[in-house]
Amino acid sequence: MNKKRIILVGKAASGKDHARKKLENIGFKYCISHTTRPKRKDEIDGVDYYFISMDFMQENFISKNLLYEWVIFNGWIYGTTIKEFNESDLFIMTPTGIKRLDPIDREESFIIYIDIDYDTREERLLKRGDADSSERRLIADEKDFENFIDFDHRIDNPNFDIIEILDSLKILKNIL
Questions:
Q1: pLDDT of amino acid 102
Q2: Domains of the chain: which residue ranges?
Q3: What is the pTM for the complete model shown?
Q4: What residues does 50 pair with on adjacent strands?
Q5: 5-175, superfamily in CATH?
Q6: In what order do the strands lie in the sheet with 50-51?
Q7: Alpha carbon of 1 to those of 93, 128, 173: distances in Å?
């Protein structure tokens, strides 16, 4: 298996950021997306996302076709620049973002669906104090992930170890 990138996808509070940080710690370069949503209390601009205004996103990225992929989720725009996409090997995307992958880029990607149960995610969302209401986010995710099947590996254990999983799948050696 020869892959150039790992893409993490999962509903809110599934563990995507936890997995991302573990992979960054062993040398992966995370693609920092741009978003128009408000920053959460523990997030850092330029580390977790580039937090920008809706007008800035429209005028400087969308209208100039500088985004590889972008989606509107719960009224906020999330987007990956072409430059960041080409310079990174670790991504967090939505099912809609994955649908927008070029077929060659999809073939070169290993997509991990972190599919954690509803109750665990709800508990995590309530603890983290999201920029959005927990209920609204959980409902939006159900719609966004309806019929989602475009992934290479599914994780359903809320206490997963991403490094151990990828090592057992022989993914790490092919990308690093």
A1: 96
A2: 5-175
A3: 0.89
A4: 34
A5: P-loop containing nucleotide triphosphate hydrolases (3.40.50.300)
A6: 50-51, 34-35, 76-81, 67-73
A7: 21, 37, 10
Q: What is the pLDDT of residue 40?
A: 83
Q: How far apart are CA 164 and CA 160, in angstroms?
A: 8
Question: Is the distance from CB of 104 to CB of 121 less than 8 angstroms?
Answer: no
pLDDT of residue 56: 97
Kindly state the tokens that stand for 86.
Answer: 């080409």
Band the pLDDT of 139: cuts 50, 70, 90.
confident
Q: In what order do the strands lie in the sheet with 90-92?
A: 90-92, 5-10, 109-114, 153-155
Banded model confidence at residue 132, pLDDT cuts 50, 70, 90 = low
* Alpha helix segments (H runs only) across 65-153: 82-87, 95-99, 103-107, 118-128, 134-144
Count of residues in the chain: 176
